[in-house]
Task: structure prediction
Amino acid sequence: AYGMFERPMEYVKTQLQLHKKQQGGKKGPYSSMLSCARYTFETRGVLGFYRGLFPVLIGSFPKAGIRFGGFSVISQRLKSPDGTTTPLRNLVAGTIAGAAEATVAVTPIETVKTKLIDGNKSFLQGFLEIYRAEGIRGIYQGWGATVMKQGSNQGLRFFAFTSYKDALLGDDKNGSLTSIQALIGGMCSGCFSTLCNNPFDMVKTRMQGLESHRYNSMLDCLKKVAMNEGVLTLWSGTLARMSRVVPGQGVIFMSYEKISGIISNMVEK
Result:
């Protein structure tokens, strides 16, 4: 049900990041979240907002498992002998988990999704075209940019959430947050990560689009966008991204906190 709301926001974000600023002062078909949504509705209808949904649905479960499972394992290994940890260690654990998530699941999912949106094609048609033309390499296009984006994403989110949790619980290291506290903490961590790493997300989208041949590398893309379209272009789609990430991360971290608590109680018994 949540996907029915957040997918249009993801579609709009992707289109805004793929859309290049016109030279010579000419205006493109859209320049903001609302104008992009209106243009999409008028030209492609309601279903146009859900282009690229199928690969995202397929990859949702492995993404979450790798992210939270990886963070739990790595953060445990990074703890001090007395069982304590630090925000920096949580940042490192989240970054490694995010990089693993990007390599195994996120890169192929995001590459196919982005190309389906950019080319306005169905999943089967788009996937077959990518594979026939570029093989497995085409499906893993933009891997480096995705690792940077997803690694920083999860590192910043776990850093923010665990810091927030420590501030609320104080010395009670075995305590847990209430549902409302975890919801607020997750929403804040989502907002924090989006504002900090949107340039990585924007570059990732460009590197996975149909015109990725314009860029020789992630750094080349970053440089060309900043020089030719302005530094603020790197934050294209931030509002649309936040409109889905903030509530989404609130629900995800609230669920994670509750499930972790239940499992801990079962192990102790």
